[in-house]
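Hello Y.,

Per our agreement to keep a running log of every chain we model this quarter, I'm adding this entry. I've kept the format consistent with earlier entries: sequence first, then predicted structure.
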Amino acid sequence: MRALLITVGSRGDAEPFQALVDALTARGHSVDFFVQAEHDFVPANPELVTLHALPFSTTDFYKHAANPRHGQDSDNPRVKFVGVIVEVISQLVLPCMEDVSRVAKDCDVVVCSSLPRHMCFCIGKALHKPVALLHLQPMAPTKAFPHYSSGETVECILKGVSSEENEKSYEIPEQCNFDFLQESLATAVASTGSAMINFDEVWKMLTGAVDSVVSFNCFSADLCPSPTHGHIHDIGALADTYRPSNFVAPPELVEFLAERKPVAIGFGSMPFQGAQGVISGLETLDYPAVLVGQAMTNYEETEWTKKNVMQVNSVAYPWLLPQCRCMVSHGGAGVLHSTLRAGIPAIIAPFFGDQFFHAKLIQARELGTDAGAMNSLSAEGLVETLKLLDTPQGAQWLVNAQAFASKIQDKNAPLELVKHLENLTR
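Predicted structure for the entry above:
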């Protein structure tokens, strides 16, 4: 089998696909992989992988997201957010359609993340190729609970409330997404000779009613129930055990961890500006910490930080987190699932999108807590949140997190997904 994979987004969007690339090539399959160069992927089996660098970075997202042309006159914040996402897709993703379409002609299956899905649906339709859509958060329409942007989602999940209205809540953002994107998509389709799609086709594809489009829920069904019907399957998190083939633990970090069990803090590619406040809070508590990412470099170094703080630009979370007390993050799907697999509490300060849903769900399941929005996180707020680690409530978080980790420890989602793709292309 030759598979074409394309993912667009942050590290949390890239690493599940990187794990899948390594799982595919471990079984002898060849892969064409479209990914942003900034993710610096080194395949485990490079002789079976052709890398195609997407010509943009995560930083470019913010440039285009600042001036969306659609949805901003709506009173519905969900519609406004869709307008922002569509701007990124139309300006950055769709211009790559010609290259993706050309490579797809020689592949057996197209595997994509959420942002390039419409483009891939059109390519699959034109070339008569199956398309596998990977949901890294609960986005497949379901009657089980409403769209994660709804304030009622967590309550419905916990109570098991099912309704037709829940499924309709997915149709609104999807319809807006398609309507806002339609003109740019039609232009890209015309220039590449692909086949245009309409919204009725899109909706059938997303609800599992089209044989040639299969969706995979690549998040933990133990955290959020996974809707599985038609051509929608439960897989589980792909990158919660993933270590890049070229990962080498920094010796100074190994030494730091040998002497203490720190708090881990990282906000990925989010525009976090509060590193100094974080440091102040940690020093107040005298909690050692590992800070991950460039956003965590802007703080004043003191005698206390020299002894108690280690900053790294990047690290494999599945290696780091089992050696830490907890993970403070923005709550993206990638870092959240690595935290859960490590069996430590998750403290989430969300910034946008599904991160707010994850924060509420984690708190409801007593696997950690919602620390409030990232852009209002203060030293005082962080201190009060981290203090909970030393209370009976914090002890219960740890017990629950360890129990959760034990339930998923034998799961190998990348291998299961490869088996599904093999069946899909037979």
